[in-house]
Amino acid sequence: MPLYEYFCLDCHERFEALRAMKDADALILCTKCKSEHTVRAISLFNAQSGGRVIAGNSSAGCAGCSSGSCSTCGR
Ligand SMILES: [Zn+2]
């Protein structure tokens, strides 16, 4: 079961919860103040792996990309 991170809009508490993927965006109460005003946060892990994917795509975009400036794909 994946671990999701949530953020409370009322008390600014960040907390994590193990939930089924289908329940990821379902209502969850704040662990600190029991508020219903919570949003799912994008975890640091996902942000970092997303950056690696972007870097990998740009270096493998085309032959011109490896030299730094590329007129073929615009990167
Ligand atoms: Zn709260």
Overview of this protein structure:
With 75 residues, the protein is an alpha+beta fold. It has a domain at 1-46: Rubrerythrin, domain 2 (Single Sheet), CATH 2.20.28. It has one helix at 44-59; strands spanning 3-8, 14-18, 38-41. The longest helix is centred in the C-terminal third of the chain and has 16 residues, at 44-59. The relative contact order is 0.17. Residues 47-59 have low confidence and may be disordered.
Which outline best applies?
A: elongated
Helix content: 10-25%
- What is the C-alpha radius of gyration, as a whole number of Å? 19 Å
* End-to-end C-alpha gap: 38 Å
In short:
The protein has a domain at 1-46: Rubrerythrin, domain 2, CATH 2.20.28. Helices cover 21% and strands 20% of the residues.
What is the element layout, followed by pairings?
Layout: E1 3-8, E2 14-18, E3 38-41, H1 44-59
Antiparallel strand pairs: 1-2, 1-3
Bound molecules: zinc ion.
Zinc ion binds next to loops.
Structural key phrases:
three-stranded antiparallel sheet; 20% strand; elongated; 75 residues; alpha+beta; binds zinc ion; Rubrerythrin, domain 2
